[in-house]
Amino acid sequence: MKTITFRRAALLTATASATLLGAASANAAGFYLQEQSTKAVGRAFSGEAADQGAESLWWNPAAIAGNATSSAYVSAAAILPSSKVRNVNTLIRRPTNATPVPITGNQVSEDPIKKGVLPSGGVAYKLNDQWAVGLAITSPFSFATNYEANSWARYTADKTKLTTIDIQPTIAFAPSPMIGLGFGINIEHSDATLSNALPNVSATLPDGQQTLKGKGWDFGWSAGVQLHPTDTIDLGLSYKSSIKHKLKGSVVITGLVAPIPTANNINVNAVARFRTPWQLTGAARVKVMDALTLNGSVSRVGWKKFDAIRLGAPLNTAIPENYRNTWSVAGGWDYDVSPQLALRGGIQWDQTPTQDGNRDARVPDGNRWNFALGTSYKVSDAFTLDGGAMYTRFAKESIDRVTAAYAGTPLQTPILTNGRVTGHALIFSLGARAAF
């Protein structure tokens, strides 16, 4: 790694402060992915914390308490977003300009949120009528965005990729047939790469480039309870803690020329810290007919934990994010057409944690509605196939966060962002469940 002088370190800090460790998600508020089982996709995530089986472990570790059998599941969801991020009137004011001027480059970015496949799986083993252990493997905060090199949004977002793997070992206990308790440890690995362009002092010069990379292992926990007061009512309440992530990696800056004092390449070790949100979910499943079960859930998500990205030495700075806590509400149904075939559906409203005045192109997020249909086919008493499809409609939102390269230095270059985002997404999921 290169040794840097105090002057260059000061400018490096100001430069890195313009980098945002944000995220863009096609189908859940902020950068959270909900598609952790196919059955959940098919009913728009309604009632998951009150349902039972290994496929509900992510939502409630008590889901395996008192189960009649051991179980396992695998699931994969294809997430297919379609979006446009448009410039309205974004301005840049370089040190050589008395007044801001319009940003140059491609004024409409098509589909910057990348398509992908989200896998998940889990297993639950019944020790006896009261005790069970389980393991769920999910990827709850994973995404990728890619803007063109000449996009109008390039100074706040270029390429972004975050991959998380969450491993949740769980123990559950049913003190009676009416009560289930569960506790899990969330062991989460994160691997992030984020980049953005940096403006040189003169508009005639090519842009520089900044890339932040980091990875790390961190820990959280989950706890839940389920109540089964009658044969027709199932209730669930669960809490998933925030996880404080510490990513160890590097910041690389290239392509800057005088008078910016980082003309040579810079590659320094850096540590970034941020927190994922906590989640509190209440759910109910009520069997209103022999064949029909109604589902409902309400979630409060603690996105205020994602208040800033804190960068350690030699940067020693914090990047404000100013997310807000959010609500999510869902309702759905399951209908048994026959002993082999079940149909389901649901609707969910999911609130964005981003706020007007703080929304940028790296997180082009908005409130959304999810509309879902699904099915299950029981191949045998021990094996079931699941399918689900969902349409997500995003609200139109502004891209309006003001940033600045080299903030706090004589070369400070404000970017007065003014854009709009529109979009929707299709999600298709297939899964299988086994009892043993």
Automatic annotation (TrEMBL):
Keyword annotations for this protein, in alphabetical order, are:
Cell outer membrane, Membrane, Signal, Transmembrane, Transmembrane beta strand
Protein name according to UniProt? Aromatic hydrocarbon degradation protein
Which residues are the signal sequence here? 1-28
What organism does the record attribute this protein to?
A: Sphingomonas crocodyli
Which compartments is it annotated to reside in?
Answer: Cell outer membrane
Record InterPro entries: OMPP1/FadL/TodX (IPR005017)
Q: Name one GO cellular component term.
A: cell outer membrane
The membrane-topology field of this record reads: Multi-pass membrane protein
Family the entry assigns: Belongs to the OmpP1/FadL family.
* PANTHER family the record matches: OUTER MEMBRANE PROTEIN NMB0088-RELATED
Tell me where on the tree of life, at the top rank, the source sits: Bacteria
> For this protein, what is any one GO molecular function term?
long-chain fatty acid transporting porin activity
